[in-house]
Amino acid sequence: MLYSVVNLPIFVDARAELTAPKQEKALLKIAVNLMVPSATGDGEFHGPSINEFFPDVIFFADTPFEINRIILIRFLAVAVLMLVFWLGTRRMKIIPTRGQSLAEMGLDFVRVNIAEDLLGKKDGKRFLPLLTTIFFMVLFMNLTGIIPFLNIAGTSVVGVPLLLGVIAYVTFIYAGVKKSPGNFFRNSLFPPGVPVFLYIIVTPIEFISTFLVRPFTLTLRLMMNMIVGHLLLVLFFSATQFFFFTADGGFKLFGVGTLAFGFAFTLFEVLIALLQAYIFALLTAVYIQLALAEEH
Amino acid sequence: MLHAVIAAATEEVAKNPLIPEIYDIIWSAVCFVVILFFFLKVALPKMQKLLDDRAEAIEGNIAKADDAQRKAEAALVQYTAQLADARAEAGQIRDQARTDGQRIIAEHKEVATAEAGRITSSAKTQIEAERQAAVVSLRSEVGTLAIDLASGVIGESLSDDAKASAIVDRFLAELEASEAPVAGKN
Predict the structure, then answer these.
(1) Which tens digits make up the pLDDT trace of B2-13?
(2) Number of domains, chain A
(3) How many CB pairs under 8 A join A and B?
(4) From residue A154, how far is each of A69, A76, A214, A223 by CA, in Å?
(5) Contacts of A296 (CB under 8 A, 6+ apart)
(6) Alpha helix locations (H) across chain B?
(7) Is pLDDT of B154 > 60?
(8) Each residue's pLDDT tens digit, A25-58
(9) Are B26 and A133 inside 8 Å of each other by CB?
(10) CA-atom Rg of chain A in angstroms
(11) Overall pTM > 0.90
């Protein structure tokens, strides 16, 4: 229904502008300062574009250490994460205080529900630091997507998802090879219980799904969720802005609907942020578990 | 306006979000390493220590409770033993007291009996002595009276003492002989 609103004929010329990046940057700022009347005020609707994920460089331009707005947001997420868990675990008591039980709850969630549940006590403990790092890094960087004035997820640019995907990939291969190289590759490529002639089909499929696709599915699932979430929010809020301050007469009413949906999707994004972090950590644990299993 | 926008769009090609930039990867890696280090060295060891402490505390409490129960049981056994000892001792004391009491009563009875016997025999001796004395005094008085009487009756002084005492002795012997069966009966 919302898409139909956006695709009303009066926006046809607006769609032609979807790739105009400079306009989009202005629009992002508008989306952030929702209630401030538009300074651009050119009377046209501007949808979000992919170039929002490539903001202007702020520091160290033209070096491999360029820092832009999104990188700064990531740094902020890392700082907040460490602050939260530093405060939460600073003075741990056997009978926890309120702050401590929150930190404990978070750490216990990864430890019990992901690490120990899938890998068991011993291996769970081995891979717990990695899984905890993946879960909370993804979670905190996801959550920046709905925090006012940040408004973009640190995980919505390919760097973090790809890095974590590659780390998960390297980790499960390391786990399998260290446990038993022969078993690991035989189980992965020639699953037991399959008739021999079927290996012609099964082995390439297993090879592709295990050794080629896994890091990319992890990367893409997370990044696309965050990109789409951001685009949706920008779309709703910029449409609200447009309806309220630019559109004529009756169209202003549409703004109420888009604002309501923008709000609903903001809440939905919280859920997505948690869910994606959980899925990423869980799948990493599952891959490690499969690699460690004696037989599939 | 529109022309300017289109010109801008062709000028700057939209980037492919799937191709990572070098700086993106570098800073992501920095973030990852920092967080991993933080969890590995700070947060998780503390958490692990807490879990260990908690487990220890729980086990410690259980051990403490076990210990307390053991002590309580030992104390109970001890008290029961002491109570039994005390009971046995009380019984012993009671028996002893009873024996003692009986012994004392018997002794006293014996003493009393002996005393009674002694009193009785001394009384008898005294009575006998008094009787003897009475008999002796009576004999002399009765003799004198009888002679005085007889002198008066016959008018003749029986001044011949040898004769007189022979008569009296004979009389008394007769008297005793007649009394003897009566005394033997008593």
Answers:
(1) 444 444 444 456
(2) 1
(3) 137
(4) 10, 10, 21, 9
(5) A187, A191, A192, A290
(6) 2-11, 22-38, 44-154, 161-185
(7) yes
(8) 444 444 444 433 334 445 677 778 788 888 888 8
(9) no
(10) 23
(11) no
